[in-house]
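Researcher: I'd like a structural prediction for the single chain below. Treat it as a standalone chain; there are no partners to consider.
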Amino acid sequence: MKTPVLLAISAHPDDELSCGGTLAKYAAAGARSYVACATRGDGVDAQIKNEAATRETLGQVRLQELAASCATLGIEAPRCLQFQDGEVDKLDVTEAARGVAELIRELKPDVVFTHDPLGGYGHPDHIAVSRIVTEAFSLAGDASINLSHPAHQPAKLYYWATPRSFMEKVPGFRDRRADIRGQQLGFVGVPDEAITTTINIQAWAATKLKALACHRTQFDFDPETGEPKTFATTVPEPARSEMFGWERFILAQNHLPHYTPNGVPETDILAGLIA
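Model: Treating it as a single chain, here is the predicted structure.
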């Protein structure tokens, strides 16, 4: 039986953790899990949370942090697409998508993950990466598009998703603002009813937190626990485990001719792929 291949394409280092538990879970079960990051995370809006990097070294350090995160998750070494952080939305979508399609053809993933079309909180880079990856997903399988590698059509495209109901349940999610290009952007999430797929990652939650802690330039850390401060930490146990012990997705495209979820929530990313 063919080894399943998963590919997550994110805008910035640390975004990979949106599906990090899923990547780790399936890698431990024998899948090959990859992360491709669009940028080095060193744009003008990037904040540096500690002295591990300077403005000049930030891109290099964040790629090292990304590599450490992937190693902690037990997945393949990451790729970087080398787009400029903070300027991804200025790229020609089709041209950028050709480059991403080339990577898809090279790695031959069965499943591709990326940002939802609203970018989680309206971040222009996230929205642009979602558009680019969505177009690349189709280009990769189009044999009439001449690229270096033969055409390969992944079976599924997923957008990772944070339920909009978290706005009421998680104070840190509701109140957090990101200063992007002079705008204060707040999380919007996705409608709960749009979520098609929920993966249990409770056994991988601690690993995911350790991977998140690899991104030391991006977080403040709790002096008592040594853990990164995130909006999840504003929720006490056991509610935290119940809410964040799962990763949620929207099945955006399905190229499996004999697989139709028919509104039944998926609990397996590989559903329909493996009989």
